[in-house]
Amino acid sequence: MKRLFPFLKPYRLQLTIGPFFKLSEAVLEILIPTFMAMLIDNGVNVGDRSYVIKMGIFMLIVATCGVIFALICQYSASIASQGFGTDVRRAMFKKIGTLSFSQIDKFGTPSLINRITGDVNQLQGAVAMLIRLVIRAPFLCVGGLVMAMSIDLKLSIIFMIVIPLFVLVLFLVMFKAVPLYKSVQTKLDRLTLVLRENLSGVRVIRAFAGTGRERRRFDDKNDEYARVAIRVGRIAALTNPLTTIIMNLAAIAVIYFGGLRVYSGNLTQGEVIAFINYITQILNAMIVLANLVVLYTKAYASALRVSEVLAEEPDIKYGDKEFNEQSNAAVEFRNVSLTYGGSGAPAIENINLTVHRGETLGIIGGTGSGKTTLVSLIPRFYDATEGEVLLGGVNIKEISESELRKNVAIVQQRANLFSGTIADNLRMAKADASEGEMRSAADTAQASEFVNRLGKGFDTHVSQSGNNLSGGQKQRLTIARALMKNSPILILDDSASALDYATDASLRRAIKENTESKTVIIVSQRVNSVKNSDRIVVMDDGVIVGVGTHSELIKTCGIYREICVSQEQYGGDGDE
Are residue 285 and residue 333 in the same domain, yes or no? Predict the structure, then answer.
C-alpha cells in the first residue's frame, strides 16, 4: 500500500483544495436546516413575509456558494484521480518492462493486463472519492449530530444508540467482503486467460472443431467468476438495506419523541423540522459511508494486486561493462543449467560450448531438446540457474543492458509484428533508418519481393500481430528487423520454419554473404537449414550429444544421423 502514496504527491494541491471546498460545502449544508428552523419559527409562524423573503434569498445564496464549492472540488478530484491513475499505469508498464520472462510467467499475462487496467481504474475511483466524500460524509454525520444535540440533547440519545449499530454493520460487511474481492479478481484473471487464448487461437479452435469444447471451458470459468461475484455482491448488497432500516427506525423515533416534546412545549415546530432534516442528512451521509466501505474494500484488494507488481524487483541485474568485439569467443557457456520456475527437471543441463567470433553455428534437435532455452540465455531472457554465460569473454551478468541489446539481435520462433506500417516495425531496430537501409535488410531477408507487390511498399499497414500477412511474410520481416540492428551476434531461432525450401536456401545464402564478420547462431529442426554451418550442435533432452560439421556428425552422432534419415538428407554437403 505504501508504494502507492508517492503517486499522490504531485497532486498535493488538488488533495488540499478539493477536500477544503467540499468541507466548506458541507458546513453550508449543515447550516441549512437551522436557517430553515429560523425561517419557520420567526417568519412563517408569526406571518413576517419580509423575513421569509430575506431568509429565502440568504438561503439561495448559501446554496449557490455550495454548488460552486462542489464544482471546484469535483474539478480537483478529476485532475488528481486521472493523474494518479495515469502515473500508476505508467509505473506499472515500466516495471513490467524490466521483469524477466520467468517473473512475467509467474504473474501471467492476463493477470498483468487486469491489474494495469481494472485494478488501476478501481484505485482511480477511490482517489476521486477520497477528495469528494471521505471528509464530507463523516463531517455531515458528526456535524449533523452536534447540531441536533444543540437543538435537543435528550432527543439526540437516539443517535447514540443508532451509530454503534451502524458501525457494526459496516465492520461485518468489510470483514466478509475483503477476502472475497481478492478472489473475484483472481477468478477474473482466469476468465481473461481463457478469453485471450480463444481470441488469439480462434483459427486453431475452428480447425479442430473445438468451438463447443472451448465454449464449455469458457462457461466453467465464467460461472466460477459469477458465483464468487454474486456471493460478494450479496454481502455488499446487505449494506444499504440494513443501514437504511437502522436510520429509518431512528427517524421514526425522532418523529415520535419529538412530537411528544413539541406537545410538552420543550421544542418548537421549526426545531423538530430541523431535527428531521439533520436525521435525513445523517441518514444520507451514513449510506454514502456504507458505499464508501464497499468501494474501499474493492480498492484495497486492487491496491494489494497493484503493489505486488510495483514491489517486484527484477531478478535480472545488469552490470556496467562493455561488450568486447575483439574476443575470439563471441559466446561461451560454462557448465550451464537452467530449470524453469515450477519445473522439477532442468530444461538444459551442464552445457559447455564456445561460439567463436565470426562463426556460423547451427543448433538442431528434436522438439523439447532445449534449443530455444539455450539461445534465450544469450539475450538474458532467462538467467542460468547454474554455471555462467560469457559474451565477448565477459560474464553476461556484468554487461550493461544497452551493450547487451546493441550487440545481440534475435529472431524468435514466433514472428511478432506490431500494428502500424512495415516501416514502423523495421525502425524498431533503428529509429532513424533510411528507406535504403530498410530495403537492404529486406533484400537479405528475402522480403523485398512481396513488399514491392504491396500497394504502398514499406508504408503498407500492418494489422495487430501482423494478421494481414502470411506466416512466411511475417518471419521474413522479423528477420529484416533483426538485420537492421547490425549487431555482431545474430540469433535465428527457428525463424524460417514457415518458408519453403527454396526461399529458405536463398535466405541462408544471402545471410551468409552479408554477415561474414558476424557470429550467426541458427536454431532449426531442418537439416538443410544448418548443414552448411561451420559447426553444428546436436541437442537431445537438454544436453549436447554432438558437435561437429555435417559430414562429421553423420559418422559420429546417431541422433543427428536419424534426423538426416527422417528428412532424407543423409550424406552430401551441398545446399539443396
Answer: no
